[in-house]
Amino acid sequence: MEDDLIFSQETILGNTGKVTYRQNSWTHLSWFLFCERFENKASLDIRCKFFGNCKGDVSLDHCAGQSRGGEKQLEDANRNFKCNISFVCLLSEAHLFILKELQLRRKMKDSVAEEHLYLDFSHQYRDSIFPLHTSISLFLLSYCDCKLFKIFLVPTSEDVDDQFVTKKLLGDLEVHLISRCQLPVVVQSCRLPAVVVKDGKFCRAGLSVVLRHIIQKTYEADPSRKYVLELLGFKKTCLKACAEVSQWTRLCEISIPLAVEGFLTASPEHCQTIPPDILQFERKLGEPVRVHNDDKIRRQKLQQQKAGAKAAVPVLGKEATEEGETVEMHHRPLPSLELSIAFSKLLVQEEVSGAVNREAPHIRRTKTSDLPLLDHVFAEGLYFTLADIVLLPCIHQFLVSSKKQGKNLVNLPLITGWYRRVQEIPGVKQAAGKCNMELLQLPGLMSAPEELLQDFSSVPDEIEEENEDSHFVGGPRPTMTKLMENGIEAKFSPHPCPSWTLDWTNLPSAVNPGEGKMSRDRALRKQQQLNNLVAAVTKLAKPGDVIVDFCSGGGHVGIVLAHMMPSCQVVLIENKELSLIRAKDRSDELGLNNIWFLQANLDYFNGTFNIGVALHACGVATDMVMEHCIKARAAFVISPCCYGFIQNTVKFKYPRSHQFKEILSYKEHMILCRFADQTAVQLPPERRLIGKQCMGLVDLDRARAAEERNYSVQVISMEPESCSPKNNMFVGTPT
């Protein structure tokens, strides 16, 4: 009888690094099967010495074959033996890491095979699939050589040639076509691209979220491919922030793809000018670079300038020729320290060889303000990241179209220079070839600064000038007095059920927020907050309703609702992956079947729903949730937070209501927002009272804006008010 090894860890990574693997039954074993268990027969060379026929002290040495203790050595790694044994393995941290990594890889292999990737397909234009989000996703899959997902194209029309799409355009990727009505239910509620696990409960949607997930899964499947993980940038934050709060994410994920698609479909007379978003990228490339070790690199650049040195680093790797043969890439001369550092990063080196020496004394004494600025090499600065992967298919289509129309690209020298540098990255040309993308070989273009200034004069700033004036002088009293003179004061509706509470003592532990890492006092306040929201939702909900917990975090609200209302479907939407994974773990522990998890910015959720909920939606997120509910004609129960982060965005302008706009300027509204954040318990009572009044006025403006769109809205204070410094709550229903 052949049994698998059973592992029981007794002491992990302690001072002794001791771990015990036990097998307590008569077993037919072979080291071949042991290695096969970890699916890494080639990289683990294990030899064994053991005592007698009952016990054995076994020492594993990775690729060494040396053993400690014991009297007899197994000469044949595949030799079978029978014994009742207790393996006691003394492992170094390195050995233990190897075994744990192999186990992790097997788990990853089992899990990733169950994930499906769904991409939109509208049409094919030249050498790309549209929308550009799909081309970008396929390009990343090719660059990472990722085969971990089952890929589906979702056509927007019926007249699609299946064979043409899958054979002619997608290279070596195996792609299937599927109609929208055949999509999993949770995916039908999302904008594509989307990735869903096999059980259909956990979905990731949105370009940035999906691309980051592809990178992470590729690296988890093969941790030796560190260059893939490096695409996520410093601290792994590249394109992590949602487009509503990050101007850079919005430019890469939304603005430039849409601008290029519009440029390609516009009539000749409407595409004579360069799209403003392309000019915005050109301007970004001209801005100084800021990196975490900025001072050090700028001093190295100064030293290089003083010495007149010319850096050169080898760009290693292989490129494919047109005949399919591979040739070694040679040393390339690099004109700047920035390029040297950029390419040394690709070689997984800490520093370039020409910049490792300690700076001269006069370099160290130079003031930071006198150091030379760093130039852009790639989209985000010095290093090749996911942002470059996203932008390359878009900029490529724009350049190809411009060149065919005979347009002179002299006014885009930074973009064309970036386009040439990206092609030098090992693997980019191969990935482009797999995607049938014929990269242009552009000559070095030069342009005078005056010409650039003419182009950029028409580019709108991403932030309005009034947003930049964040330093206000004076308090909120003049603004509050101005509103009072026009008959506007902060008023709160009576709480409909102030004493309503859940029976927390009889609820499962996974429902109770106190079972997490909260302190006892904080857990009690969280329970009180949940009492208020659940009470309001209970009065609104009917069997069969879909309830969406926006900005769900760890799922405190959504999990309680799903447990208390089994006849309703609950959807948790959160942009932070780890928070949503924790929520799913709690849901699995409870065995909930009426709950979905969506990692996405809430704009990527387009499903129908009946009630929207949000506990402490930060800043503009409150207005985003409210707007989403109003568009769906859904009721909402929202608790705002972080009033100080409220500011004008692309989608939202303040004040929100016509009534407030007629009285207050944007700056006056911002004064209310700043002081609405001053409600912390350590502040003097009179200061907290003013903060509460400002909160009420800001939320009254929001409520009036909803009422102008045929909603009935109440602004209520949670009970008890001590449950949170931010204790306001909206309850809105369509009229």
Keywords, separated by commas or semicolons:
735 residues; alpha/beta; 12-stranded mixed sheet; 4-stranded mixed sheet; 25 helices; 16% strand; disordered N terminus
Structural account:
The structure is a single chain. With 735 residues, the protein is an alpha/beta fold. It folds into four domains: 106 residues, no CATH class; 258 residues, no CATH class; 88 residues, no CATH class; 258 residues, 3-Layer(aba) Sandwich (Rossmann fold). The chain is 38% helix and 16% strand. The chain is globular.
Give the low-confidence spans: 1-95, 107-113, 309-334, 346-356, 446-470
Beta-strand proportion: 15-25%
Kindly state the number of beta strands: 24
Helical element count?
Answer: 25
Number of domain modules: 4
